[in-house]
Amino acid sequence: MDKWVYSDIKEEVYHKTLSNGLNVYLIKKDGFKEKCAFFGTGFGSFETGDFLIDNDGNKHLVVGGIAHFLEHRLFDYYKGNVMDLYDNLGAYTNAFTSYNKTVYYFSTIDNFEECLNLLLDFPSVFEMSEEAVEKEKDIIVQELLMYKDMPDQKIFEHTMNNLYFEHPIRFDVGGEPEEVRGTSRDLLRLCHQTFYSPANMKLVVVGDFDVDKTLEIIEKNQESKKFETSKHEVKKIDEKYDEVVKEEEVFEENINNNKIMIAYKMKPFEGDVVKERLCLDFISTLLFSSSSDFYDNLISKDLANNINFDFISYEGINCLAFSSDVNDVDEVKRLVKERVNKALELFKEEDLEKVKKSEISFIIRSCNSCSNLAKYFALYLFENTNYLDLIKIIKEISVKDLEDVYKKYLMKACSVCCVMKGKKDD
Amino acid sequence: MNRKEIFLDSGVRLLMIKTKKFKTVEVALNFECELNDDNITLYNLLMKLLTTKTGVHSSRESFKKYLNDLYDMKVSSYKNGYGATLGFSLFVNALNKDYVLNNENLLKKQFEVLNEVLYKPLVKDEEFVNEYFKEIVSEYKQNLINLDNYKEYVVNKKVSEIVGNFPILEGNVKCLKRVSNKDLYDSYLNLSSLCKSVMVIGDFEFEEVEKLVNEYLFFKEVRHSYNYFYKGKIENTEDKEFSSSFNQSSIAVVYECNVYIGEENYYPMLVFVEMFNYYLFKIVREEYNFCYSIYAHYLSSRGLCYLQSNIEAKNYSKTLELIDKIVSDLAGEIDLSVLEICKKKIINNLKKEDDSQVKSLNREKMCFLYNLGSLDETISRINNVKDEEINEVSKLFKKKFSVILKEGK
Which one of A278, A406, B82, B200 has the largest count of C-beta atoms within 10 Å of its C-beta? Predict the structure, then answer.
């Protein structure tokens, strides 16, 4: 077992790759009552459009929303409903699906060993009736309808559809209601067989526990399991990075205000992904955060409100998105573009140091909670990054790094602008 | 964990909890005033105004950069209703010295920031700088307008209008229009007499904190005290329907529990509501698949319960029937295993509060306001809740009305 010591933040991580390929990370937090574990697979909505090959060699298309559907259904375990089983143990459980992962987790005070074994067991077993699959469709459709009433989600979907020609970031993680209605049990099984093998999964456990004993529990659990695997044919995405689908879109919705989203499409990373990703993250902070004069100007001149920005980065995706409620669309659009064009002027040592301190403090603060630490550690693993290693990398980033990354990616990026106009009476 | 509590000359309670468990120190100042729509809006605005710019850092940019340089020291505010009392808190959170360069002690800086926020606001001629006042009002107004795009908020607003004296903690535009710069400044001048307690949790020395409190915080004598319960009854019992342009309907149901926090039946009612939630999820979501989420909140200082869910309008009547049946079934034979599960859930959530600085402070506050006793005593009270007590409190649980915000598409 490897032991990684982070003496500056007083944390230790134990890691082992088990013989079946499962990567296990244990973080001991002395004095905390909560113990939790996150168990995830690299299967999300980005696999939409791929093909899976069954035992007879037939190809099956991965439909939208199926990773999310599978997440819902795996809670129906043959020993009982997983929520009930955790309830009986006095624990809390849940799961989430995103673009590139599905993660299951629990949080408990008592019965840690039973909770951990259950987490390692239930996502690994596919046991569901046709009837149960059909029944679940109604709940999922209700969930999708709930998201469709969220204006920020809607403008994001429009923006991604205008930015990307082929990449599955165009699709909602949960799929469309008709895709959910059309999902079959056989396809769910094939997805499970393909993506839920231990080598595709990661386990993060955080809390005040005995490390050796915990690893023993995990190893014993995994030894007894056999996993079938299926082949997976990844859809070739021929995305154009110097072109967008539609540069401008204005659409109406029943909302009280106008919203804008301006997004920049950058080519995929070519160098040190972790470092370049951090650089673009810092650049977006320097451009648009509340510590910028730009933000101050938009608010004080009453041009925009509820200002947000996000650097979205996955395999094949590097996108910087600015969004806000907006009072003067043309002026905000002009200012955002001017800001991005003149970004090189903003990269000053003094400001970068402040951003770095802020990012480091975010990581340290997340160590105040077992579930937060476990969540962030797990999320970053699916980006092939050790969350706690970020501190060291952050410290090394210079103004020159920001300039290089800006010139390489953002300076040449093309963009789209989406405006959602409100049509509700005031 | 080591704690010390003293009362300052002004009557403000200073509670210090010393622990090495966390990597940050949290300082909270807790204020209280009468709970009503005007006060909620006024103090939301005031807190926003005081924490966005100051007389020392007169732009958002400079204040935020200053805080970022202090390892992103967090200045935030939070409000809650305690019966007829509005509680609002100002928090300042900073990394403790073990985690910053050269072991710089940020605790003193935390108190300096509090001092700056509270006593050096951006003022001119005995008012807030008018441009800044207008900017914050406009920002707040637009936030409120934006909230109307969310059905959960809209349905909550409808409930508030029907119940009367059931203010929404986000505030409202009508009240905001009534707030003048002068009003706000007068409220600011009175702020230090509304402070009831200062709470600090983290790794520090008691003497050090006491010294900093005396050096940087100045309070007028605490004069006001409001009722921590609100026992007004709801007259309306009619279900209401409203139209909307959302894709999916949203429903709310309001109940009178007739049991208040700290009372004899409080713990049975707490367990009852947990059981209610257990069955809502099991039956309405899992068995009938009518919704993705459904949840009932026990507002224990008002003796009310507020249930909310997003459903399709075609399932509205059936959903209400199912909910009514769950409540009536809880008056009958109780499934003891479910009772035990729900007790365990509440207890484990209480135990987890020790793992969070903010939740630990909130629990301290609730214990003080409602004389709840220690965590061990609370756990023991919950463990001792019997099935017949659930039956008993179920008789006190009365549905008043429901609201549906009907989908328009």
Answer: B200
User: Complex ipTM, two decimals?
Assistant: 0.93
Structural domain tally of chain B? 2
> B212 and B311 share a domain?
no
What's the confidence (pLDDT) of residue B105? 86
Q: Does residue A239 fall inside a structural domain?
A: no
Q: What is the largest CA-CA distance in chain A?
A: 65
Regarding whether A24 and A117 lie in a shared domain, the answer is yes
Question: Which of B:240-259 have CB within 8 Å of A?
Answer: 245-248
Measured between CA atoms, the residue of chain A closest to residue B132 is A300
What's the pLDDT score for residue A426? 44
Q: Look up the pTM and report it.
A: 0.95
Separation CA A276–CA A297 (nearest Å):
29
Q: Structural domain tally of chain A?
A: 2
Same domain, residue pair A210 and A340: no
B407 CA to chain A: closest CA distance, Å? 10
Measured at the CA of B9, the angle between CA B7 and CA B11, to 5 degrees, comes to 55
The answer to whether residue A153 neighbours chain B at the CB level (below 8 Å) is no
- Chain B nearest-CA residue for A368: B22
User: Which tens digits make up the pLDDT trace of A124-158?
Assistant: 999 888 998 998 999 999 999 999 999 999 999 99
CATH number of the CATH domain containing A281: 3.30.830.10
The CATH number assigned to the domain holding B376 equals 3.30.830.10
Q: A96: exposed, middle or buried (C-beta count within 10 Å: 0-12, 13-18, 19+)? A: middle
A36 lies in some domain: yes
Q: Which amino acid is at A149?
A: D
Residue A242 belongs to a domain: no
Q: For B23, which of A296, A354, A364 is closest by C-beta distance? A: A364
Q: B182 and B269 in one domain?
A: no
Both B249 and B209 in one domain: the answer is no
**What's the domain range around A124?**
2-233
A340-360 per-position pLDDT tens digit: 999 999 999 999 999 999 999
Which residues are within 8 A (CB) of A339 and not within 5 positions of it... i.e. 6 or more apart? A287, A288, A294
Q: Predicted confidence band at B206 (pLDDT cuts at 50, 70, 90)?
A: very high
Contacts of A35 in chain B (CB under 8 A): none
Taking all residues of chain A, what is their mean pLDDT, rounded to a whole number?
A: 95
Residue-range definition of the domain harbouring residue B12: 2-216
Task: For the beta carbon of residue B363, count every other beta carbon within 10 angstroms.
Answer: 17
Could you tell me where the DSSP H helices lie in A108-223?
112-121, 130-148, 151-163, 177-181, 185-195, 211-223
- Tell me if A36 sits within 8 A of A86, measured CB to CB: no
pLDDT at A175 over 50: yes
